[in-house]
């Protein structure tokens, strides 16, 4: 299988998206996506860890013994997650408190370990960087889309609490698109996350199938074979 950069990006963003195709990392994806800002925060943290872990694994792959590669991968990922968690606690304290345990739980995200084992440990650093960016951005986009949709339906707003990520000036970014007394409570509850993700997966599958060429009708093929005889 070729691993040129356009293919890597298409796989990460669409064909093999971690959120709606591989269905990996569903615990944080479903747990914290009740707002767009939460989705952006967790998505950026996951993206950073995925990119850095891919680079670290690719840079050290020639010196890793096959018998111990998985523990080494986990150690690299855990170290990077710890750094990201501490940085968020220092610079984005309120957002870190909102996301809570789901920042440290990035360690358990199967997408990161899977890309380290299946891709970064076999590819040079440039391609591993592209793969980390593509897979991380694809996962982040699903987080943001799910969070924005649930926030809009549940609270009638978009980008509420943007100051938690961007600072006090970002309070003006909040958009109220629906009346304050209007809101679908189910959207911001855990069942709403499952329903929202299911709709995103169904939409992705619908678009995928619409892009595929129409299969030839078996009846037409059989009639052509009869005519040929």
> Domains counted in the coordinates: how many?
1
Strand content: under 5%
Which whole number gives the mean pLDDT? 90
Described by the principal axes of the CA atoms, the overall outline is globular
Q: What is the topology, as strand order, of the major beta sheet?
A: 1-2
Structural class: mainly alpha
Summed up, the helix count is: 11
Provide an overview of this structure.
Helix 1 packs parallel to helix 7 (125-155). Helix content is 68%, strand content 2%. Strands 1-2 form a two-stranded antiparallel sheet. It has helices at 5-15, 26-31, 36-60, 69-91, 93-99, 110-120, 125-155, 163-166, 185-188, 190-211, 218-228, and strands spanning 157-158, 175-176. The longest helix is centred in the middle third of the chain and has 31 residues, at 125-155. It contains 11 helices and 2 strands; from the N terminus they run H-H-H-H-H-H-H-E-H-E-H-H-H. Mean pLDDT is 90; it is low at 218-229. The chain has one domain (5-211). By secondary structure, it is mainly α.
At a glance:
The chain has 229 residues and is mainly α. The chain has helices spanning 5-15, 26-31, 36-60, 69-91, 93-99, 110-120, 125-155, 163-166, 185-188, 190-211, 218-228, and strands at residues 157-158, 175-176.
Topology summary:
Blueprint: H1 5-15, H2 26-31, H3 36-60, H4 69-91, H5 93-99, H6 110-120, H7 125-155, E1 157-158, H8 163-166, E2 175-176, H9 185-188, H10 190-211, H11 218-228
Antiparallel strand pairs: 1-2
């Amino acid at each position: 299988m070729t691993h040129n950069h356009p293919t890597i990006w298409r796989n990460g963003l669409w064909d093999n998206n971690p959120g709606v195709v591989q269905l990996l990392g569903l615990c944080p994806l479903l747990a914290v996506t009740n707002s767009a800002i939460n989705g952006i925060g967790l998505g950026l943290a996951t993206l950073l860890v995925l990119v850095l872990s891919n680079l670290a694994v690719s840079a050290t792959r020639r010196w890793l013994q096959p018998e111990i590669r998985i523990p080494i991968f986990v150690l690299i990922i855990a170290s990077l997650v710890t750094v990201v968690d501490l940085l968020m606690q220092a610079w984005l304290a309120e957002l870190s408190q909102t996301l809570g345990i789901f920042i440290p739980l990035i360690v358990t995200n199967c997408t990161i370990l899977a890309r380290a084992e299946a891709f970064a440990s076999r590819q040079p650093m440039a391609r591993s960087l592209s793969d980390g960016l593509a897979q991380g951005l694809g996962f982040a986009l699903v987080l943001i889309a799910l969070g924005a949709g649930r926030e809009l339906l549940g609270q009638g707003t978009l980008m509420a609490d943007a100051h938690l990520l961007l600072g006090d000036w970002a309070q003006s970014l909040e958009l109220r698109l629906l009346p304050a007394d209007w809101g679908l409570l189910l959207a911001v509850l855990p069942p709403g996350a499952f329903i929202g993700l299911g709709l995103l997966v169904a939409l992705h599958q619908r678009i995928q199938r619409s892009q595929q060429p129409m299969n030839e009708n078996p009846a037409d093929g059989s009639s052509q074979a009869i005519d040929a005889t």
